[in-house]
Amino acid sequence: MAPTDNSLMLLLAALMITTLVVAHVRSFLEWRTRTRGRPLPPGPRPWPIIGNLFDLPRFKPWHKCLAFTEKYGSVVYLQVLGKPIIIVGDPDVANELLNRRSANTADRPRNPVVELSGQEVNFAVLPYGEWWRRHRRAFWHHFNPGVISRYLSIQREGAHKFLASVLTSPYGMKTNIYFTFQSVILKIVYGIDVVDASDSRLAIASAALECISQATPGHFAVELLPFLRHVPAWFPGAGFQKELAMSKIANYRLKNDLFHEIKVAFDRGEHRPCVAANMLVRAQESTLSFDEEEVIKHICVIAVEGSADTTGHTLEAFCLAMALYPNVQKKAQAELDQVVGPDRLPDHTDSNSLVYINAIVKEALRWHVVLPQGIPHRTIEDDELNGYFIPRGTTVMANVWAFLHDPQAYENPFDFFPERFIRDGGIDPNVRDPTDFMFGFGRRICPGRHFAIPSLFINIASLLHVFDISLPLDDNGHPISIEYQESHGLTRSGHIHMYCYIFDFLTERTLL
After folding, report:
1. 436 - beta bridge partners?
2. What is d(CA 214, CA 297) in angstroms, rounded to the nearest whole number?
3. What value does the CA radius of gyration of the chain take, rounded to a whole number of Å?
4. Which of 61, 246, 260, 291 pairs as cysteine with 57 (C-beta 3.0–4.6 A)?
5. CB neighbourhood size of 99 (10 A)
6. CA–CA gap between residue 304 and residue 292 (Å, rounded)
7. Buried b vs exposed e over 445-475: b needs ≥16 C-beta within 10 Å?
8. In the CATH hierarchy, which fold is given to the domain comprising 119-354+418-431+443-508?
9. Binding residues
């Protein structure tokens, strides 16, 4: 090689090194300017390039997140492939960051699973902005506290149907629970009368949620490596494509099939009293644009999907708790006997007098946390928290499960003990209320929470007033040991050992 060639190569190498050094110095100075010298929150030491990829908890992550909190403090920082994540393990910090500073934490992380599974119809996971606001306003109009009273009679009728289905088929309890809540919400949203659990429309929402319910952060590799969305389903390791595609088809059906039914009825002048029809009436005042029709469809979808989560899974867990804690059941039934009596069923109007039943509702929500880490938030701008720098675009995960199993707030937190919420014959306002956390935070708090609580109340009160729930017996007449076990997922049902047998001894009560 000629001397001039060597000189040229050295010059190019020097320029490359200089460019890299300048870029590094510039990046460093920009970072120093952004952080103003404030450190990132503590957390496990990251690896080069991949960061804390191997530290990211994937299976029942709320347990490892609690371990992180115990080791590093109330705010734990992870960085996965360049994406910042913080885990909030203290309820006061969560309140500060996600409630008081909701204007900066109301966004959602961008997740390819949302689009691949068809969950963009769910405004709970939409990015913060005007499109989300349109959905939120429309939903709130039909589910704010001022209008919930118009739905109580449908909830009560659904509870009565639930009792009848339990009486005829106690072994199909999970199906009975799902049928109850879905038939009620389908009536309210679409004006549909579902006769029995064989109705094909009931299966649509279940299929739509089946995949997304497993999507804890990092569950699907495509969440961390978005380019994998372009990998064909037949490629080894790309089986997630089939799962997500099935979920997308189910979401498409849920969005369009049921709405088409009500739209056809509406166009021929048949006005069903339901949310969808009321929204169509309001939209009829002006020409119904494509965007407006999409919003109506999405509102109906999230109402149907949401009813299957908090209420259905919580009622499952409640039934298990009654079998495991018979003394709680007896106290609740004694209150029902005194307040309601033997000649009728409980009603929403009995709520103020049924203090222990209300305490059971709170304890059921606390004991079995359906959304143990909620839905992740995302910061919009740089922020500071307790002296730590929080970069914009940081995913924020609140460990709601840990908040509601904190032994400092709840003595013996793994026991089912409704008395913890009662003081001087009423609900104690000084005890940490599970509904302050498990429905989300700030501007992204679940707008359907005012519908969910009375739904749980009427079903729990009605079930306890009519039936006894006890553990099954073995061949020798001894109770079979059953234990509570958490399931994995974004939303959790109450998985237990030998679950199907728990209703062997769900029997009618004798009301004297």
Report:
1. none
2. 24
3. 26
4. 61
5. 14
6. 19
7. bbbbbbbbbbbbbbbbbbbbbbbbbbbbeee
8. Cytochrome p450 (1.10.630)
9. 446
* Residue from 73, 71, 75, 98 nearest 88 by CA: 75
Amino acid (1-letter code) at residue 182: Q
Beta strands 426-427; 505-508: pairing state: unpaired
Q: Is residue 28 a contact partner of residue 50, using CB atoms and an 8 Å limit? A: no
pLDDT of the chain, 512 residues: tens digit per residue: 555 666 777 777 777 777 777 665 665 566 677 888 899 999 999 999 888 888 887 778 899 999 999 999 999 999 998 899 999 999 999 999 999 999 999 999 988 888 888 888 888 889 999 999 999 999 999 999 999 999 999 999 999 999 998 888 877 788 888 888 888 999 999 998 887 777 777 777 666 666 556 555 567 777 777 877 877 777 777 777 888 888 888 888 888 988 888 888 888 888 888 999 989 888 776 666 668 889 999 999 889 887 766 788 899 899 999 999 999 999 999 999 999 999 999 999 999 999 999 999 999 999 999 889 889 999 999 999 999 999 999 999 999 999 999 999 999 999 999 999 999 999 999 999 999 999 999 999 999 999 999 999 999 999 999 998 888 777 777 777 777 776 655 444 443 333 333 444 455 555 44
For helices 173-190 and 201-212, angle between their N-to-C axes, nearest 10 degrees:
110
Q: Which residues are annotated as a binding site for heme?
A: 446
- Tokens at 8, concatenated: 């040229």
Type of residue at 8:
L
Do 279 and 288 meet the contact criterion of CB atoms below 8 Å apart? no
Pair of tokens at residue 440: 């989300």
> Any idea of the CA torsion for 310, 311, 317, 320, to the nearest 10 degrees?
-170
Which pairing describes strands 83-88 and 395-398: parallel, antiparallel, or unpaired?
Answer: parallel
